[in-house]
Amino acid sequence: MPEAFSAGDTAWLLTSAALVLLMTPGxxxxxxxxxxxxxVLNMMMMSFGAxxxxxxxxxxxxYSMAFGDDVGAGLLGDPxxxxxxxxLMSADSLVFGIPSLVFVGxxxxxxxxxxxxxxxxxxxxxxxxxxxVFVAVWSVVVYFPVAHWVFAFDGxxxxxDSLGGWIANDLLALDFAGGTAVHINAGAAGLACAxxxxxxxxxxxxxxxxxxxxLVMLGAGLLWFGWFGFNAGxxxxxxxxxxxxxxxxxxxxxxxxxGWLLVERLRDxxxxxxxxxxxxxxxxVGITPAAASVTxxxxxxxxxxxxxxxxxxxxLKYRFGxxxxxxxxxxxxxxxxxxxxxxxxxxxxxxxxxxxxxxYGGGVDQLWRQAVGAFAVLAFSxxxxxxxxxxxxxxxxxxxxxxxxxxxVDVTTHAESxxxxxxxxxxxxxxxxxxxxxxxxxxxxxxxx
Amino acid sequence: xxxxxxxxxxxxLDDVKTALESFGVxxxxxxxxxxxxxxxxxxxxxxxxxxxxxxxxxxxxxxxxDDADAQDVIDVVVKSAQTGRIGDGKVWSVPVETAVRVRTxxxxxxxx
Lengths: 449, 112
Fold this sequence. Notes:
The structure holds two protein chains of two kinds. By secondary structure, chain A is mainly alpha-helical. Chain A has one domain (7-396): Ammonium transporter fold (Orthogonal Bundle), CATH 1.10.3430. Helix content of chain A is 61%, strand content 1%. Chain A has 15 helices and two strands. In chain A, a hairpin with a 2-residue loop joins β1 and β2 (98-99). By secondary structure, chain B is an alpha+beta fold. Chain B has a single domain (2-111), classed as Alpha-Beta Plaits. Chain B is built from two helices and six strands, in the order βαββββαβ. Chain B has helices at 13-23, 67-81; strands at 2-8, 29-35, 42-46, 49-53, 56-65, 89-95. In chain B, strands 2-5-1-6 form a four-stranded antiparallel sheet, covered by helices on one side. Chain B has a two-stranded antiparallel ribbon with strand order 3-4. The longest helix of chain B is centred in the middle third of the chain and has 15 residues, at 67-81. Chain B is elongated. At the A-B interface, α8 and α9 of A face β3 and β4 of B. Chain A: Its main location: membrane. Chain A: It is found in: Cell membrane.
């Protein structure tokens, strides 16, 4: 049934959408600090490139593919229904009591972030043009359909008779804010991309150390801030769901930092800042699907488990030899899986979601639903992402040349360097007005032709 | 003349400089350096991956002195740079053929 317009809910969703958009620049800082100084700009540009491409596609037909009426077994929305957001601009076009365009914007920010997350797996070595093509194709082929599976509810976005996606309506797996659609999806795609592009030169031999951990900490802080919009906004209202999601988003990352640092202290002897920043993100990833279905104490348990498991999982790339540079797999795929599956154990019927998991006497019913949803997205995303990345690689080359990689992708691809520290060789040819100024001209002096 | 070169721990630079000034040394050259001796480097940990950093930060001090002062200057540096812990550094001297003060063109001991 259509709900009446709510100014309060609308105000909160507009705020949430802006918070979620901030997560992508936050991610750019988080990722940018973790790469070497010679490739920080390319790392950040991959996030900003995702913002550029996905926002446009989302408005043109992406929203329609995700939230249009189902055109086949819950797998895909009708891309033509809201083409160019047609029909969504009138005052009576509401989704859950808020103007449809607000919902379009909020969900669009999810799409942007999900795509940007993938870039962490291919740091230092991706051709920017190829990345932009990958972003466009991946959004259309993978993200928009999966968003439909998970986020499109029957009767929500296109009138009472509208049909949504299979995970939301038939499988009934709980995924409050996108553990499957966002994190498992991006993590699986990251793994596929890392496999297609291959290892960075020097992976496993040279220290490919983060060049600026303060950027990493700042980025993690911005992600946490924006994540309140991501999770508490996903109630699409300002109510009891929102309150619980906010509190769980508040406590789970804290517990995850403790879990991550404890593993580090025991294993390596040091609790590190990169570990703390990573723990925050792991906890946020883990609580995302579960934000409205576990109690705050459940969120602490979930956070601690996710933090500890992800701290162990980031070492997998060395064991199996794939270069998931910034641990998209270790944090987002593994964190998303743990969070999604733990709902099957920790969901409490005392929460607004009203579902009991295994540990609350609900049996294994919810657990298998969670598992089917999680692994369906994982398999779909991994296979298609691998095919897309491979196709892009064959068509135009996904990876920069060895020489460019050693020199640094910033200078060779973007003709920029991140830091000017006033030492080293300086340039001899500066062309402020390239077309008119002879290279040898000294300011104020005439040069003979 | 001799060139006394010392590679020491960076935090000892002030102590060494003060001691050399008290001894009567008029000028010296300081360079940031990195390297290792028997102590090797240190280990850094990023998400559980350990990186051994071989080259540790050092400071190199160079002083031109009269032959007669060389041994004393070396002693002054050793005394003031010593912590007794591993990685304190090294001091050595080499003979210098000539030295010229650029401003005046003075040569030899006059140039010091």
